[in-house]
Amino acid sequence: MSDADSNTNSNSDADSDSGSGHCSTPDSDGEVADEIAIVSFERKLDTAEEIKRDLADDYDRIDVLTYHGDVFADHWGEYDCFVGLMASGIAMRKTAGLLDDKWEDPAVVVVDEELTWAIPLTGGHHGANQVAHDLSKLGAVPAMTTASEAAGKQGVESKAKALDSHVVNGDSTVATNLAVLNDELGPVARLDGPKAVLVGDDVTVLKRNGDDGVVLGTGSVSGAKKAQFLTAWERALDDADRDFDDVEFVATGTRKADEPGMLDAAEEIGAGVVYFEKETLTEFEGPTPSRSKELIGWPGIAEASAIAGGRDHELVVEKRRYDDAVTVAVGR
User: Fold this and answer.
1) Residues 243-269: tens digit of each pLDDT
2) Within 10 Å of residue 171's Cβ, how many Cβ atoms?
3) What sign for the dihedral angle of Cα 259, 265, 268, 269?
4) CA of 183: how far to CAs of 149, 155, 266, 311, in Å?
5) Is the pTM of this model over 0.70?
6) Within 10 A of 67 (CB to CB), how many other CB atoms are there?
7) 274: nearest Cα among 217, 202, 199, 236
8) What is 35-145's CATH number, 3.40.50.11220, 3.20.20.140, 3.90.650.10, 3.90.950.10?
């Protein structure tokens, strides 16, 4: 087994063996809300439209719905997340009877009329935390109450998002998120198939989304800027005839953890970051010689990370260096 670390703004362990949503999708991790509805009283429709404008670039669809007694019921299942521009008690009373399954129910967030607080009511790990965080752009303070986020830790659903995967057996996350909270989960194990796996109720199975994504393996000098990462990644993806929408995640070495420019660039393209230990990168060393191996014993991070992270462990684009600051390779 070999260690890696997956990051979506907070650090926690993931693992790679042999190398390392959508609310309406039954077997999705549900972490990503793509289509949201802002429910507002008529007197606050201008504020609702302001929210829509400010979040427009982050979502596939945002609709503003004028509140009436059955508005949630009429549109239940149509959106990934409802944002209630109203008191939390109103939203709670109108949605409580509609809730059935946390893996299929839309998330619900409330924000007060002065945009002071954004409070996930249900579906915190299934889009509500994400939307509440995005509402902070308008000055609202996101009030996260899910245990892992409140403790500054990355829940299983967030790990799945970072790895561009989804949770297959949702009921297991009660046990595994408790283990996260108690620092007992350990690394996520990657199994390269074909294999048959027998698991218990306290084992969460993550399955990668799609079948044709790529991994950006990247290294950098200390302090490289967000714009330098984005330019480097875009050029490498052009060489692979791909774009940012094709990226499953960004991969690098643990020695490059917490590079602000890299984390900001990954957030810009909507990708998680996975950190591989030196042992894993050594196992998947790329073809291009690297001075770092001579100097500090690490193989070239960009190529090894791209190969280790790719589902087929295949290098698509060999290491490129841009602006003497960022190296990048593309794997799948």
Assistant:
1) 999 999 999 998 777 789 999 999 889
2) 12
3) negative
4) 13, 11, 26, 28
5) no
6) 20
7) 217
8) 3.40.50.11220
